[in-house]
Structure formats: structure tokens, C-alpha cells
Design a protein that fits this description.
Elements lengths: L1 H48 L4 H17 L4 H15 L4 H5 L8 H11 L24 E3 L21 E3 L71 H6 L10 H4 L2 H13 L14
Parallel strand pairs: 1-2
């Protein structure tokens, strides 16, 4: 009697175990299949990057962007591939320096830069570390963040030619811009917290309302750089000579040691006397 009662229950348990194992196997088969499809897509996309047709290369770039969305584990590889694509196709050489780029980088390079930029803030560790764009010819490039969480923090732009480039967004935290050419670049309202700008060429750059919180600008050339509303109070390496060579504004915020220099005070006094418009609110430049 006991055996007759137990057998149906045992059969039900075995059936449940079998069903569970079947579901598990099906899920594993599906995962393997999906990974295989992603691998195929990745191989096709990378192959397209080397095509002679710019349209095919663009297709490869956007295919890699889709893979970044679909497969988190492949994101670091895609980031490295796209950064390498930019470095290989936009090196700084004697020949490239002779070429004019009135419209910025070609469309495929611009697309790769956009994909690299258009990632969520805080994705640096997940995406495999720094984006390496050192010594690349990015004259006139447009770095436009399509969302507020875009991230180029810790990006390596050291030695890069970014003259005339446009940066719109708060995504350059701790970026490496050592010896970069940023002449006439547009960094209006840029947040450069902890950025390294030692030896950078900022001649004629628009730095209006830029914040250099704890940035290092030792040896940077600020000749004719627009410093209206710019906050330089906590940056390191700033000298009186750099400030006097720039387009100092009434609202430029300076470290107290710089502001109290007689030459700087004389320049600020001249600016106040020249511009007496009541619509311009004067900042207190030397409050630190």
C-alpha cells in the first residue's frame, strides 16, 4: 500500500527534475547560440572597418555600437577596437599636418568618436579602462554628448591635435591633455576637474565659464585664451605670466596669490574702468 502511494509522487518529482534540466539546457543552448551570433556580428563589423568604402566602414562602426548595447562583456573589446581605428586612421604625421581639415575629421572617424563618447558616466571600469586617443589628428572634431551621462573621463589625448575642436558636455574629468594642441578649441563651460594640461597649447581657446578644479596647467600656453567667467582658483601651475597673456575678464576667478600681483590687479582695474555696464555682474576673483 505504501509503495503504491509513493510511486506517483516519485514519478512527479522525476518529471519536475527532468523538466528543470531540460529548461536549463535550453537556456544554455540559447546563450551559446546568442554568443555565436554576436561573435559572427563582431567579426563582420571588424572586417567592415578595413573596407575601402566609407559607407561600409560606417556600417561596421554602428554595428559595433549595437554590439556594445547587446553584449556587456564585449564592451571593453569594442571600445579598444574603435579607439585603435581612430589612432590608425588619424595619426599625426608630417603629411597629415599639411592637409587642411575645415570640416573636421572624415565621417567614419567622427562616427567612431561619437560612439566612444556616447557611453554612460561611470562606465570607465566596465569598459576596460582609459580610451587611448594619444597623438591623433582630431582637428575640428565635434565632441557632442547626446546625453548628460556621456563619459570621456581619463581619456588619453596627450599629444593630440585638437585645434579648433568643439567640446560640449561635462565629460573630461581627469582627462590626459598633456602637450595637446587645443589652439582655438571651444571648451566653453567645460568641466576639467583633475585634468592634466601640462604643456598644452590653449592659444586663442574659448574657455568661457570653464572650471579647472584641481587641474594641472603647468606650462600651458594661454595666450589670447578667453577667460571670461573662467574659474582657475584651484588649478595648479598657474602663473602671473599665463594670466597676463590671456584675455582676462572681469569675471575671471583667480587664486589669491595671482590676483594680488600688482600687474594682475592693474589689469583687472583697467577692465573695470573700461566696462562699466550695470548688466555685467562682477565676480570676486581673488576670494581664495
Amino acid at each position: 500500500m505504501v509503495v503504491a502511494t509513493t510511486l506517483p509522487g516519485l514519478a512527479a518529482v522525476i518529471a519536475l527534475i527532468f523538466t528543470y534540466l531540460s529548461v536549463q539546457q535550453s537556456q544554455e543552448d540559447l546563450r551559446v547560440s546568442e554568443q555565436g551570433q554576436i561573435t559572427d556580428r563582431y567579426n563582420d563589423a571588424v572586417t567592415n572597418l578595413g573596407d575601402d568604402s566609407i559607407d561600409v566602414r560606417l556600417g561596421g562602426i554602428y554595428a559595433l555600437q549595437r554590439i556594445m548595447t547587446d553584449s556587456e562583456r564585449d564592451r571593453p573589446t569594442v571600445v579598444r577596437i574603435l579607439a585603435a581605428f581612430v589612432r590608425v586612421h588619424a595619426p599625426i604625421t608630417a603629411e597629415t599636418r599639411k592637409a587642411l581639415r575645415p570640416g573636421g575629421p572624415p565621417p567614419d572617424l567622427a562616427a567612431a568618436l561619437t560612439v566612444l563618447l556616447d557611453r554612460e558616466s561611470g562606465s570607465l571600469e566596465r569598459d576596460g579602462g582609459q580610451i587611448d586617443l594619444h597623438r591623433t589628428d582630431l582637428r575640428g572634431a565635434y565632441f557632442l554628448a547626446t546625453h548628460q551621462d556621456a563619459d570621456l573621463s581619463l581619456a588619453q589625448f596627450n599629444g593630440a591635435d585638437l585645434s579648433g575642436a568643439f567640446f560640449e558636455g561635462d565629460f573630461l574629468t581627469a582627462a590626459d591633455l598633456r602637450d595637446a594642441n587645443l589652439a582655438h578649441a571651444h571648451l566653453k563651460a567645460a568641466r576639467l576637474r583633475g585634468a592634466r594640461l601640462t604643456g598644452a597649447n590653449l592659444t586663442g581657446a574659448d574657455l568661457e565659464n570653464a572650471h579647472f578644479d584641481n587641474a594641472d596647467i603647468t606650462g600651458a600656453d594661454l595666450t589670447d585664451a578667453n577667460l571670461e567667467l573662467t574659474d582657475l582658483r584651484t588649478c595648479t601651475g598657474l602663473t602671473v605670466q599665463q594670466v597676463l597673456s590671456s584675455k582676462l575678464g572681469r569675471t575671471t576667478r583667480l587664486p589669491r596669490r595671482i590676483y594680488e600681483d600688482p600687474r594682475v590687479r592693474a589689469r583687472m582695474k583697467a577692465l573695470h574702468e573700461r566696462d562699466e555696464s550695470p548688466t555685467v555682474r562682477s565676480a570676486t576673483p581673488g576670494d581664495r
